[in-house]
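Suppose you are handed only two things: the residues of a chain and a line of SMILES describing zinc ion. What would the bound structure be? This form records exactly that question and the answer produced for it, so the two can be stored side by side and reused later without any lookup.

QUESTION INPUTS
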Amino acid sequence: MSKIYDEVLSANAGYAGSFGDKGSLALPPARRFAILTCMDARLDPARYAGLAEGDAHVIRNAGGRATDDAIRSLVISHKLLGTLEWFVIHHTNCGMELFADEVIADLLEDDLGTASFDGKAWTNPHHHGGHAAGHFVKWHTIGDQARSVLQDVRRIREHPLVSPSIPIYGFVYDVRSGRLDEVKAASEAGKAAA
Ligand SMILES: [Zn+2]
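ANSWER OUTPUT
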């Protein structure tokens, strides 16, 4: 087994060993809110938003984008599990700003292994075994964080299955300071119906 495999299982043994009364937590999030945010390893929503187990839903994907699947989770979060407020949180220095759809599709068509980035362009170290399927995927890349947050809040707000009673707040997390900066236009667009 790999080193990481062992580390994860060892960390889990420690966690389970001091699990305490968390086994009796209710399924619906106690603080009744949800966060949609990026999978970026530097972001820890439990810490940056002060969450404990059982508090809130956290939905993560590359970019924290309001994809169909993210919206599916949010709709379930409210409809079946009672969350009443949602946050969309993108962040500075997001990897989703570093490529365009054609770039990742071309790289994948050439080779499926990890590509490298020199600060300007992506290149594959090897060139075999790629596939063209990437050209048929919408990758939801980001050009400007404030704009992507606004777009995503709007998309969620206007979705036919999203209750107008849910306020949706838009933020950009700053990876250098740990601070959440509100995107006013997004939170305005995400206001709940009176
Ligand atoms: Zn990101």
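WHAT STANDS OUT: DSSP finds six helices and seven strands in the chain. The two ends are 56 Å apart (CA to CA).
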